[in-house]
Amino acid sequence: MIETIEFGKNYHWIILHADFLTNDTTDYQTLGLDEETITYALDRYERAHTEYQTDTDTFTIIYNVLKRTKEENHYETIPITFIAKKQQLFTIYNDDNAYIIDLMKKYLAYNNQISVVKFLFVGLFLISESYFPYIEALDKKQEEVSRKLREKITKSDLLTLSDIATGMIYLVAATNQNTILLEQIKGQIIYKQFDKIEREQYVDSLIEAKQLSSMTQLNSEIIQQLYSTYDNILNNNLNDHMSVLTVLSIFLAISATVTGFFGMNVTLPIKNSPYAWLVIIGICLVLCLIYALILRIILWKK
User: Fold this and answer.
1) pTM, entire model
2) Tens of each residue's pLDDT in the chain, 302 residues
3) In a 3-state reduction of DSSP, which class is residue 120?
4) Quick one: which H or E segment has residue 159?
5) Which segments cross the bilayer (predicted)?
6) In the chain, domain spans
7) Among the listed residues 201, 187, 176, the one whose alpha carbon sits nearest the alpha carbon of residue 120
């Protein structure tokens, strides 16, 4: 699928679906695109990066976009490709990031008289902006799970917190890559060609990307700290339970030792006494009390 929208001073926004480019009969040269760029665009695991080819005046940006549907109970990101070439802006997308195309179309409907570079940075701004509602939703979910865990630590709530933490790791990595990409543009030759309006839009996109990166980093650290805290609580609870079981096992061992001694097939002083069982119980109780007293003294000294 290919769609062309005209804007500004005879500029063209050419929208390409990835499925269209995977067709072997597609002639990339007629679109003015090279095979290497197409290979980057079709790689779902391509890292965010930027490249400027001076010989063809081609400015390529691969940017991380939030995937709105969850994968294994957490959010991930997927790349989208922008190629600015003279009076054309190519955007290569797929079904998972098609909503960005809709956002850009809405913007263009009310702001038609803009340049190719400004529209490119507007797209990057809209991508960063689209993250925030989902980050805020994850933050609210984290607070909800945290409240439940304060009342009672359950496996299901810990797994939910783990899924949120895993998703935040993906988002932190993706937003950091986007920020680094935008910062690198300043060092490229094409940056000197931007006019005042284009540079202002570039700065806006960079600020938005930095804010998003800081927000995701902060949320990730909070979630990691919470997860670590509840993990420590579980370990402490386990240690307490093991201590109780150890004390109980020692008490049982005392009784087992005494009854085992009197259970031997040898002649004992109280063997024929009708109160022998009371004597055995008494010995067990006395030894248990002595052990309890010693244990109490040890704990008191600590």
Assistant:
1) 0.77
2) 688 899 888 889 999 888 777 665 455 666 777 777 777 777 777 888 888 888 888 899 999 999 988 877 888 899 999 999 888 999 999 889 999 999 999 999 898 889 999 999 999 999 999 999 999 988 888 888 888 877 877 778 778 888 888 888 889 999 999 999 999 998 888 888 899 999 999 999 999 999 999 999 988 888 877 777 776 676 766 676 677 777 778 777 777 777 777 777 666 676 677 777 777 778 778 878 887 787 777 767 65
3) helix
4) helix 155-185
5) 244-263, 275-299
6) 2-236, 242-300
7) 201
